[in-house]
Here is the input.
Amino acid sequence: MKNYDSMKRILVTGGAGFLGSHLCEILLHQRHEVLCVDNFYTGRRTNIARLITNPLFEILRHDICFPLYVEVDMTYNLACPASPIHYQSDPVQTTKTSVHGAINMLGLAKRIKAKILQASTSEVYGDPAIHPQDETYWGNVNPVRLRSCYDDITGPINLGNTREFSILELATKIIELLVQIQNNLSTFA
Here is the structure.
């Protein structure tokens, strides 16, 4: 594994998606090597077109439902169709991506002793009976409804809060947090 000073080799699954492509861009801006993995089920090459000429950027077409053998320092697992029109069109594949994909990425992280961030969604609350949801709320998920393939398979940790905010405010906060995380990781290099 390459580890020149604070430079890291970082895997971003779902890297050609909306959030993944922006994360790849931020990591490249921080001078990390980025391995973008996407099966292009919902991710788009146009989302990463501006990154392809960067010598620190590499793209691999791969479905994380199958094991992946690469050497990286850390992983951001963002792979899963996020739009209802996409995750409902093939609920079995959505479930496989979230469950098998997470298991494969956790297995990779364990094998190579790398850090991993497993993304989740507010959909874990299902159709909430209260609004906004606080950290003690367990949700209102129906395992046989149309959205259950997406609701039931996402992670158990809620990093949200009860304050409502715009998408722009959320995006700004995510960028700030990612920069902060990267700066903290650099101190452990």
